[in-house]
């Protein structure tokens, strides 16, 4: 029995945000031969479960880059952001006008003026540099508002934060300088972790949160030795699970650094790269 952890965006999902029938078919074949396939995403729990359901798939879920782990519809791990971190970071994000989202037990909380903040930033960057891709930025922005389970809020002070059990703060900025400044201000802290799933994104969570830690935890929970684990991904937040797994497979569209740290490289996410990798390296009989 093997445990295969598969990232979502840029990996299992095509650019249109769906799981292809080809990928779903091969995952079901893996499950029939007794292997366990786990979705391992930076997305929220509600969004991840919704996408799996639409594809007709049932499997363990690791979300929020490893903050939340579910197996057999039971939460087996929950790493929440400490109140102290929230109390210090949220006022700063507001003061500096960053676009941010809160990942909670009720879904994703998005700023009512979030789209306005992002559009202002896009316009400003394009004004300074005409080569800045407005279409790319607009596409990235729209993806955020297509998530399942969104709630809107005006200001974080109106929310009952402890009750919402926040496990991730997601920051989106198309200004590399602004993201760098924020990362720099938070880099010395021991009470949080930071990762990214794309060049415009910064994801803040509990200090012990990583996909690698979550994969290790899930393997232990299922009594599967790490030598029988496989990780498939495309971005920097996948590197920790690449280090934890015995075999790592990077997508054809992966960041170059991710490809360098992988055992194998497969086709892109728009070419059913996951199905291709599973058939080539894991599946015994393709039925």
In words, what does this structure look like?
This protein has 287 residues and is of the alpha/beta class. Helix content is 39%, strand content 21%. The chain has twelve helices and 14 strands. It has an eight-stranded mixed sheet with strand order 5-4-3-2-1-12-13-14, sandwiched between helices. It has a six-stranded mixed sheet with strand order 8-7-6-9-11-10. Strand 3 (61-63) and strand 4 form a beta hairpin. The longest helix is centred in the middle third of the chain and has 15 residues, at 114-128. The chain is globular, with a radius of gyration of 19 Å. The mean pLDDT is 95.
Give the SSE map:
Blueprint: E1 3-6, H1 8-12, H2 21-32, E2 36-40, H3 45-54, E3 61-63, E4 68-71, E5 74-78, H4 83-95, E6 99-104, E7 107-111, H5 114-128, H6 134-144, E8 150-153, H7 161-164, E9 168-172, H8 176-186, E10 193-195, E11 201-205, H9 211-221, E12 229-233, H10 239-244, E13 247-250, H11 256-260, E14 264-265, H12 273-281
Parallel strand pairs: 1-2, 1-12, 2-3, 7-8, 12-13, 13-14
Antiparallel strand pairs: 3-4, 4-5, 6-7, 6-9, 9-11, 10-11
């Amino acid at each position: 029995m093997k445990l295969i952890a598969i990232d979502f965006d840029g990996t299992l999902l095509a650019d249109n945000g769906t799981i292809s029938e080809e990928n779903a078919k091969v995952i079901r074949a893996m499950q029939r031969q007794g292997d366990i396939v786990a979705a391992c995403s930076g997305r929220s729990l509600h969004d991840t479960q919704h996408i799996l359901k639409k594809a007709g798939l049932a499997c363990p879920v690791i979300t929020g880059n490893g903050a939340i782990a579910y197996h057999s519809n039971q939460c087996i791990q929950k790493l929440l952001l400490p109140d102290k971190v929230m109390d210090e970071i949220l006022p700063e994000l507001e003061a500096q006008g960053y676009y941010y989202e809160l990942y909670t037990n009720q879904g994703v909380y998005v700023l009512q003026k979030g789209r306005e903040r992002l559009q202002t930033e896009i316009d400003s960057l394009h004004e300074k540099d005409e080569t800045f891709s407005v279409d790319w930025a607009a596409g990235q922005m729209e993806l955020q508002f297509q998530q399942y389970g969104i709630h809107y809020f005006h200001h974080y002070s109106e929310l009952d934060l402890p009750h919402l059990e926040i496990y991730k703060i997601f920051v989106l900025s198309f200004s590399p300088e602004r993201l760098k400044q924020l990362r720099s201000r938070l880099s010395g802290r021991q009470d949080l972790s930071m990762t990214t799933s794309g060049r415009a994104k910064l994801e803040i969570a509990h200090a012990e949160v990583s996909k690698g830690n979550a994969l290790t935890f899930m393997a232990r929970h299922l009594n599967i030795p790490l030598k029988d684990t496989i990780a498939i991904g495309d971005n920097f937040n996948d590197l920790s699970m690449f280090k934890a797994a015995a075999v790592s497979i990077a997508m054809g569209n992966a960041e170059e650094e991710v490809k360098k740290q992988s055992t194998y490289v497969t086709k892109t996410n728009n070419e059913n790269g996951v199905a291709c990798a599973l058939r080539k390296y894991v599946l015994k009989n393709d039925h």
